[in-house]
Amino acid sequence: MRSRFHFLLPLVLSALAAPLLAAEPPQAPYIRCVQNELAALGAAVPVTGRLNRATKTAAQTMQKRFASSAHMALLPKLSEISAASWCRELASLKPELRKFMPSASAPLFMSSGGPGSVQTAVVRESFQSVERFFQARYNLQLASRVDVAGADSGAELTKLAIALQRGRGVSYGGMSRSVGRNCRTPSIYFSGQAYRDQLLICWKREAKFDQAWRRKVGPKIGAIMAHEYMHHIQYELTNSKVWRNNYRSQSRMGPAWMVEGGAEVAEYEWKIARGGYRRLSLAELMKPASKSAKSLRTMLENRSVKGLEQYLTARYAVYLLTKRYGEQAVLNYWRHVGQGKSWEAAFRAAFGQSISSFYSEFEVMRRDTQRSASYMAGG
Ligand SMILES: [Zn+2]
To answer: 54: CA distance to ligand 1 center in Å?
Structure first.
C-alpha cells in the first residue's frame, strides 16, 4: 500500500523545509486569498499572507462598499479566525475572484484501491457532483480545500487520512481512534466523517470492486458526501476551520439537532436533485419524528444525535425551518454563530423566533401534519 503514496513525497519534503523560513501564520492561505481579492477589487494591499493594518482597513472599506450584500454584512471583523469566511464571501461577489480561494486548487482524492482504481474514481466523481450541487442550489462554494479519501476498513482509512494530512504538512493526531469509531476493519456498512480539511468515506468490503459496484454504491456514497459536505459548510460559516480545530466541534456550531438536521436536509435534497429518489410527503417526513422518544430539547441535553430515528427527527425540524424561512435563512444561522453569537441569539437573528418557542411548537408539529403545514406557510 505504502508505495502508492510516492507522489506525496515532494509535498512532504517541502513541508519539512518550511520551518527553515520564518513561520507563516496558520491561516496564511486565507489571508493571502483576502489580500489578493482586495487588491483585485482596487484596494492598495500588499499580498503577504500576514494580517496588517492596510488589509484590515481595506476590508472595512469593502464591507461598506458592498453593504447591500447580506453575506458581506454578516461577516465579523477580519481576523485570522474569520479570514476563510472573508475569502469566501469576497469571492462570491465576483466569479473571477474565485481563483484566489484555496479550494480553487484541485483536492487530493485517495482510496484503498489506489490511484486509477474504480474506488478512487467513485470518490472523485461523487465529491465533484456534490460540490456542483451545493454551488447550484445554495450558491455556496467553500473557500477551504477539502481532500477526500475512501476505504473499506478503518485501518486503511486511517492510513489514507494521515497521508492526506502529510500532503499538507499537518498532523491532526488521534486519527486511528476517531476513524475507528465509525469504520470497522473490515467495514460492514457505509459511513462518513468530516475533519477540518478532510472528508472520509467508509464503505462495505466487497469481494470485487468493479463497474457494477460503482453503479450500485455511487448514489449511496454521494448521499453520505452531501451530508458531510454540509458539515464542512457549517464548519466554515461558523469560522471553526482554524488551526486548533481538527475535529468537528458541535458545541460551537450546535445545537446538535441543527447541525445534523441541516446535513440531513442537504442529503435529502441532493438525492432528489441527483434523480432516482422520490420526494417524500409531509406525513412520510414526519413519521420518524412522531415516533421518536426524544424531543429536540432532550437531544440538546444529551449534546448529540444518535440513531436513525433521531437523525430523521432532526431532519424534520430543520425541514420545517427551511420551508418557513428559506434555505438561506438556515445557512445564515451559522453565519450568525460565526459572528460570535450564542445559539439562542443566532437562532433569533436568523429566524426571528426564540429557540425555546420553536421547541414547544415542534413538540406539537412532530405529531401533526396540519399544524406543520400551517407553520411552513408562515402561520
Ligand atoms: Zn452528520
So the answer is: 39
Tell me which residues have their CB within 5 A of the ion that is ligand 1: 260, 263
pLDDT value for 97: 97
What are the pLDDT digits (tens) for 164-177? 999 988 899 999 99
Which of 315, 299, 181 shows the shortest CA–CA distance to 248? Answer: 181
Confidence band (pLDDT; 50, 70, 90) for 230? very high
Cα(169) to centroid(ligand 1), Å = 27
Whether residue 3 has pLDDT greater than 80: no
- Adjacent-strand bridge partners of 147: 198
Torsion of CA 353, 358, 360, 361, to 10 degrees: 100
Of 262, 268, 159, 150, the C-alpha closest to 217 is 150
Q: Within 10 A of 125 (CB to CB), how many other CB atoms are there?
A: 15
Nearest to 299 by CA among 315, 282, 319: 315
